């Protein structure tokens, strides 16, 4: 039995990484952080041409038709590069339509989402840090929705919103529909814009599915974030090693100092074993669905904290420059903070994992 990725998956990871290293280098990330700009449309269009927008979309609708592990491999590469863009929310919307949409809904929206002509987003969060399907409170009345959602990804740029509704249901709301308004906030991680979504008798298209689909979409989001966190943590360790091998103090590079070695070694030994947890959670999503919810929760909870720890070590061992706005450590530290909290904190998902395990 082979527990490794396929050659094609390694190629996907390498291709996505090389793409973002070229198209969104740290100089471009600093421009985004300086201006607080929203969606980089040219970059999104080029990433869609690469096939990222339709990774989970069936081929008959113009997508690539891959599995969750393939999306996780791409997310790993994006985390490594701190790549900007709406792929998280966009992918979850395409997955929800694929798993729970009607034939009419799939034909109407999936081709545009797969090509990147339409940008998708999710609206799950509510007051009180309520992210989970069983916590959603917005109710559909006569095909319309009223209420607010928090921490919506790219609210000003999305064409379609996947809204979590009462009873663990899902509905699609078009951004241009009457009664729909959005607000943009200045979040910590400016590579992923967030804001609010307000609905006032806004027309919606409920997906004809039950709460099981909503749970699977949530689990896919957790796996996406865990993979992104692994890529970012890996990059944080690598940048720390590179800097410690160049920074000279007292006539030696600081990599010679025992205290520095220990901190880097601790970070590396936390990060590397976590790779298998992400891969297996992503594999289980498609092939062991009975295990997937618990594994997704564990992967998100563990990788989120591993990433925060690795990025903090990176900033600390870079010394004074690690804390400056102009230096690139900030991109990965702030992304770690986003990955830790989006869709629920580690404590939330550890508790879920314990319940799912029957503890």
Condensed summary:
The radius of gyration is 20 Å and the shape is globular. Helix content is 53%, strand content 14%.
Note the gap between the termini.
31 Å
From the alpha-carbon coordinates, what is the Rg to the nearest angstrom?
A: 20 Å
Structural class: alpha+beta
Mean pLDDT across the residues is: 95
The share of residues in extended strands comes to 5-15%
* Overall geometric form: globular
Helix content: 40-55%
Order of helices and strands: HHHHHHEEEEEEEEHEEHHHHH
Strand tally: 10
- Main β-sheet, in a few words? 4 strands, mixed
Residue runs with pLDDT of under 50 for 5 or more positions: none
Number of helices: 12
**How would you write the strand order of the largest sheet?**
1-4-5-8
Blueprint (SSEs and pairs):
Blueprint: H1 7-23, H2 26-35, H3 41-49, H4 68-81, H5 87-100, H6 103-115, E1 120-123, E2 140-141, E3 144-153, E4 160-165, E5 169-174, E6 180-185, E7 194-203, E8 205-206, H7 211-244, E9 248-249, E10 252-253, H8 258-271, H9 274-287, H10 292-317, H11 329-341, H12 346-356
Parallel strand pairs: 1-4
Antiparallel strand pairs: 2-3, 3-7, 4-5, 5-8, 6-7, 9-10
Helix pairs in contact: 1-4, 4-7, 4-9, 5-6, 5-7, 7-8, 7-9, 7-10, 7-11, 8-10, 9-10, 10-11, 10-12
